[in-house]
Task: inverse folding
């Protein structure tokens, strides 16, 4: 089992300079598994060769094939399995760069309102293969200055806007698109650390009524309903993709007892946790 956290130290004056983004290259053997209990960055995965499956809050057992791109938004739980020997590049960032007004995420907000979201990926297109090929050479040669990473992220933004339609980008980037990017990032980063909307509002240092108004304005639904949906997604993710006992899951999600978890699952999914896990294992 591994994770995406940086472990290597490089003797460079700029190495410890804070950077808003980071690219890393991975060569995975078949059967390799990556996990993150809470994604601390938004991540974009570029699968150069091979095949992997992705489990996160928004999808279960999604197959990513060669020359496809996947988004893993900040705050979500992640489990990735290499179904065969695979080569990939992972871009981790907190905020997409505002290169020009044509690639600003906020400009895609109006399209977001007309989208019924489902998890999706993008194919490599245009000069994307050449961009990634050169980037991989940099990474393998330890050309690791933060300025390189920042420049390549800006270049990625331009490639997205050049080779993909606004509708494609709005659907792909849906989880991180918001008129107020700072508020959106705060919510996605912190909602897992609290139990109630009241606690999240307190963490934002604003009154509950102001927080609820702001949340509804930018997320188009109530904070309570949104957090309940995210909680349900996280519980289902733990049941399907981890080996945690149901008692552990009950404690992690602050149920007063395992029986309350069972009632919750029956209400949300029509099955008790044991049956949900059994069915998911049969599919894999």
Result:
């Amino acid at each position: 089992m591994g994770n995406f956290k940086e472990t290597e130290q490089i003797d460079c004056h700029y190495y410890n300079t804070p950077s808003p983004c980071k690219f890393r290259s991975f060569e995975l053997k078949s059967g390799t598994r990556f996990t993150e209990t809470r994604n601390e960055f938004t991540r974009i995965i570029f699968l150069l060769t091979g095949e992997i499956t992705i489990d996160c809050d928004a999808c279960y057992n999604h197959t990513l094939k060669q020359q496809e791109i996947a988004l893993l938004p900040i705050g979500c739980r992640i489990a990735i399995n290499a179904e065969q020997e695979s080569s990939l590049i992972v871009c981790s960032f907190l905020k997409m760069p505002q290169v020009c007004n044509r690639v600003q995420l906020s400009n895609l907000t109006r399209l977001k309102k007309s989208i019924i979201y489902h998890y999706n990926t993008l194919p490599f297109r245009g000069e994307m293969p050449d961009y990634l090929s050169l980037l991989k050479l940099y990474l393998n040669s330890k050309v690791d200055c933060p300025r390189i990473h920042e420049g390549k992220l800006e270049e990625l933004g331009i490639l997205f806007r050049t080779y993909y339609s606004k509708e494609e980008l709005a659907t792909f980037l849906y989880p991180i698109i918001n008129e107020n990017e700072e508020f959106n990032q705060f919510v996605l980063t912190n909602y897992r650390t609290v139990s109630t909307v009241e606690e999240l509002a307190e963490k934002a240092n604003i009154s509950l009524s102001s927080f609820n108004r702001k949340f509804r304005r930018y997320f188009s639904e109530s904070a309570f309903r949104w957090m309940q949906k995210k909680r349900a997604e996280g519980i289902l993710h733990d049941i399907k993709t981890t080996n945690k006992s149901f008692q552990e899951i009950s404690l992690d999600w602050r149920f007063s007892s395992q029986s309350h978890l069972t009632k919750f699952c029956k209400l949300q999914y029509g099955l008790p946790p044991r049956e949900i896990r059994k069915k998911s294992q049969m599919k894999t």
Observations:
- Residues 5-9 have pLDDT under 50 and may be disordered.
- The chain has two domains: 21-176, 181-283.
- The chain has eleven helices and nine strands.
